[in-house]
Amino acid sequence: MTAITLRPMRWWDIEPVMDLELRLFPEDAWSRGMYWSELAEAHPGGTRHYTVAAAPDGTVVGYAGLMTVGVEGDVQTIAVDDRIQGRGLGAALLTDLVEESAARGCTELLLEVRVDNLRAQRLYERFGFRPVGVRRGYYQPANVDALVMRLDHPPHDAKDPKNG
Protein backbone atom coordinates (compact mmCIF):
# COMPACT_ATOMS: atom_id res chain seq x y z
CA MET A 1 0.00 0.00 0.00
CA THR A 2 3.00 2.31 0.32
CA ALA A 3 2.74 3.32 -3.34
CA ILE A 4 -0.86 4.52 -2.92
CA THR A 5 -1.25 8.20 -2.10
CA LEU A 6 -4.12 10.08 -0.53
CA ARG A 7 -5.07 13.45 -1.97
CA PRO A 8 -8.07 15.78 -1.99
CA MET A 9 -10.89 14.67 -4.30
CA ARG A 10 -11.47 16.97 -7.28
CA TRP A 11 -14.22 17.16 -9.89
CA TRP A 12 -12.23 15.05 -12.34
CA ASP A 13 -12.27 12.20 -9.81
CA ILE A 14 -16.06 11.88 -9.92
CA GLU A 15 -16.11 9.49 -12.89
CA PRO A 16 -13.53 7.03 -11.48
CA VAL A 17 -15.23 7.28 -8.08
CA MET A 18 -18.56 6.48 -9.74
CA ASP A 19 -17.01 3.42 -11.40
CA LEU A 20 -16.02 2.13 -7.95
CA GLU A 21 -19.28 3.27 -6.35
CA LEU A 22 -21.43 1.37 -8.84
CA ARG A 23 -19.30 -1.76 -8.57
CA LEU A 24 -19.03 -1.76 -4.76
CA PHE A 25 -22.53 -0.54 -3.88
CA PRO A 26 -24.77 -1.62 -6.76
CA GLU A 27 -27.99 -1.49 -4.72
CA ASP A 28 -27.50 1.86 -2.98
CA ALA A 29 -24.87 3.77 -4.97
CA TRP A 30 -24.69 7.53 -4.75
CA SER A 31 -25.36 9.51 -7.91
CA ARG A 32 -22.96 11.78 -9.77
CA GLY A 33 -25.10 14.70 -8.67
CA MET A 34 -24.60 13.76 -5.03
CA TYR A 35 -20.82 13.80 -5.47
CA TRP A 36 -20.98 17.14 -7.31
CA SER A 37 -23.02 18.57 -4.41
CA GLU A 38 -20.61 17.19 -1.82
CA LEU A 39 -17.56 18.58 -3.62
CA ALA A 40 -19.23 21.99 -3.86
CA GLU A 41 -18.85 22.15 -0.06
CA ALA A 42 -15.29 20.73 0.01
CA HIS A 43 -13.37 23.99 0.11
CA PRO A 44 -11.59 25.94 2.86
CA GLY A 45 -14.31 26.86 5.33
CA GLY A 46 -16.74 24.35 3.78
CA THR A 47 -18.53 21.59 5.63
CA ARG A 48 -17.11 18.71 3.57
CA HIS A 49 -13.76 16.95 3.23
CA TYR A 50 -13.24 14.34 0.50
CA THR A 51 -10.15 12.26 -0.17
CA VAL A 52 -9.23 9.82 -2.91
CA ALA A 53 -6.60 7.10 -2.81
CA ALA A 54 -4.63 6.93 -6.04
CA ALA A 55 -2.36 4.16 -7.30
CA PRO A 56 1.00 5.16 -8.85
CA ASP A 57 -0.59 5.24 -12.32
CA GLY A 58 -3.26 7.66 -11.06
CA THR A 59 -6.06 5.09 -10.86
CA VAL A 60 -8.52 5.88 -8.07
CA VAL A 61 -8.64 2.82 -5.79
CA GLY A 62 -10.50 4.29 -2.83
CA TYR A 63 -12.28 7.34 -1.51
CA ALA A 64 -13.75 8.76 1.66
CA GLY A 65 -15.87 11.72 2.69
CA LEU A 66 -16.61 13.67 5.83
CA MET A 67 -19.22 16.26 6.79
CA THR A 68 -18.65 18.53 9.76
CA VAL A 69 -21.13 20.93 11.29
CA GLY A 70 -20.09 22.61 14.52
CA VAL A 71 -18.67 19.99 16.87
CA GLU A 72 -20.28 17.05 15.05
CA GLY A 73 -18.71 15.05 12.27
CA ASP A 74 -20.24 12.38 10.08
CA VAL A 75 -18.47 9.88 7.85
CA GLN A 76 -20.40 10.26 4.61
CA THR A 77 -18.75 7.46 2.67
CA ILE A 78 -15.68 5.27 2.61
CA ALA A 79 -14.81 2.71 -0.05
CA VAL A 80 -11.84 0.63 -1.20
CA ASP A 81 -11.54 -1.19 -4.51
CA ASP A 82 -12.53 -4.79 -3.76
CA ARG A 83 -9.41 -6.04 -5.58
CA ILE A 84 -7.13 -4.49 -2.94
CA GLN A 85 -9.20 -4.73 0.24
CA GLY A 86 -7.47 -6.07 3.33
CA ARG A 87 -4.21 -4.18 2.76
CA GLY A 88 -4.78 -1.26 5.12
CA LEU A 89 -6.20 1.28 2.69
CA GLY A 90 -9.55 1.47 4.50
CA ALA A 91 -7.68 2.22 7.73
CA ALA A 92 -5.63 4.92 5.98
CA LEU A 93 -8.78 6.57 4.62
CA LEU A 94 -10.53 6.38 7.99
CA THR A 95 -7.45 7.84 9.71
CA ASP A 96 -7.66 10.78 7.30
CA LEU A 97 -11.30 11.40 8.24
CA VAL A 98 -10.73 11.00 11.99
CA GLU A 99 -7.76 13.38 11.92
CA GLU A 100 -9.65 15.93 9.81
CA SER A 101 -12.68 15.83 12.12
CA ALA A 102 -10.43 16.41 15.14
CA ALA A 103 -8.62 19.26 13.37
CA ARG A 104 -12.02 20.87 12.71
CA GLY A 105 -12.84 20.73 16.41
CA CYS A 106 -15.38 17.92 16.33
CA THR A 107 -16.09 16.27 19.67
CA GLU A 108 -17.82 13.29 18.08
CA LEU A 109 -17.73 11.45 14.78
CA LEU A 110 -20.70 9.39 13.63
CA LEU A 111 -21.21 6.91 10.82
CA GLU A 112 -23.72 4.43 9.50
CA VAL A 113 -22.66 0.99 8.34
CA ARG A 114 -24.74 -1.86 6.95
CA VAL A 115 -25.56 -4.38 9.65
CA ASP A 116 -24.33 -7.11 7.29
CA ASN A 117 -20.93 -5.44 6.68
CA LEU A 118 -19.00 -7.07 9.52
CA ARG A 119 -15.59 -6.33 7.98
CA ALA A 120 -16.25 -2.57 8.05
CA GLN A 121 -17.70 -2.78 11.56
CA ARG A 122 -14.50 -4.45 12.80
CA LEU A 123 -12.42 -1.66 11.21
CA TYR A 124 -14.50 1.02 12.91
CA GLU A 125 -14.30 -0.78 16.26
CA ARG A 126 -10.48 -0.87 15.99
CA PHE A 127 -10.61 2.94 15.74
CA GLY A 128 -12.74 3.21 18.87
CA PHE A 129 -16.18 3.59 17.28
CA ARG A 130 -18.97 2.11 19.38
CA PRO A 131 -22.54 1.17 18.39
CA VAL A 132 -25.13 3.72 19.51
CA GLY A 133 -28.25 2.75 17.56
CA VAL A 134 -29.86 1.24 14.49
CA ARG A 135 -31.59 2.97 11.57
CA ARG A 136 -34.20 0.52 10.26
CA GLY A 137 -34.34 0.15 6.48
CA TYR A 138 -31.68 2.83 6.00
CA TYR A 139 -30.11 1.29 2.90
CA GLN A 140 -32.61 1.30 0.05
CA PRO A 141 -33.89 -0.31 -2.07
CA ALA A 142 -32.62 -3.45 -0.27
CA ASN A 143 -34.21 -2.28 3.01
CA VAL A 144 -31.08 -3.15 5.01
CA ASP A 145 -30.64 -1.69 8.48
CA ALA A 146 -27.74 0.59 9.37
CA LEU A 147 -25.76 0.31 12.56
CA VAL A 148 -24.99 3.81 13.86
CA MET A 149 -21.54 4.08 15.44
CA ARG A 150 -19.86 6.95 17.29
CA LEU A 151 -16.30 7.93 18.14
CA ASP A 152 -15.89 10.52 20.87
CA HIS A 153 -13.02 12.98 20.46
CA PRO A 154 -11.74 14.82 23.50
CA PRO A 155 -12.60 18.54 23.48
CA HIS A 156 -10.28 20.34 21.07
CA ASP A 157 -8.28 22.23 23.72
CA ALA A 158 -7.99 19.09 25.92
CA LYS A 159 -5.36 17.80 23.47
CA ASP A 160 -3.02 20.61 24.50
CA PRO A 161 -1.29 19.60 27.75
CA LYS A 162 -0.83 23.29 28.62
CA ASN A 163 -4.62 23.59 28.93
CA GLY A 164 -5.12 20.39 30.94
CATH topology-level name: Aminopeptidase
Task: Kindly report the name of the CATH homologous superfamily.
Answer: Gcn5-related N-acetyltransferase (GNAT)
**Classification by helices and strands:** alpha+beta
Spatial strand arrangement across the major sheet: 1-2-3-4-5-7-6
Radius of gyration: 16 Å
Protein name: Ribosomal protein S18-alanine N-acetyltransferase
EC number: 2.3.1.266
Keywords: Acyltransferase, Cytoplasm, Ribonucleoprotein, Ribosomal protein, Transferase
Family: Belongs to the acetyltransferase family. RimI subfamily.
Describe this structure in words.
One of its GO terms (molecular function) is protein-N-terminal-alanine acetyltransferase activity. Keywords: Acyltransferase, Cytoplasm, Ribonucleoprotein, Ribosomal protein, Transferase. This is Ribosomal protein S18-alanine N-acetyltransferase. It holds the Pfam family Acetyltransf_1. One of its GO terms (cellular component) is ribosome. By secondary structure, the chain is α+β, with helices and mostly antiparallel strands. The protein has a single domain (5-163), classed as 3-Layer(aba) Sandwich (Aminopeptidase), CATH 3.40.630.30. Helix content is 27%, strand content 34%. It is built from four helices and seven strands; from the N terminus they run βααβββαβαββ. It has helices at 14-24, 32-40, 89-103, 118-126; strands spanning 5-8, 48-54, 60-69, 72-80, 108-114, 130-139, 144-152. The protein has a seven-stranded mixed sheet with strand order 1-2-3-4-5-7-6, with helices on both faces. Strand 4 (72-80), helix 3 and strand 5 (108-114) form a beta-alpha-beta unit. The longest helix is centred in the middle third of the chain and has 15 residues, at 89-103. Mean pLDDT is 91; it is low at 158-164.
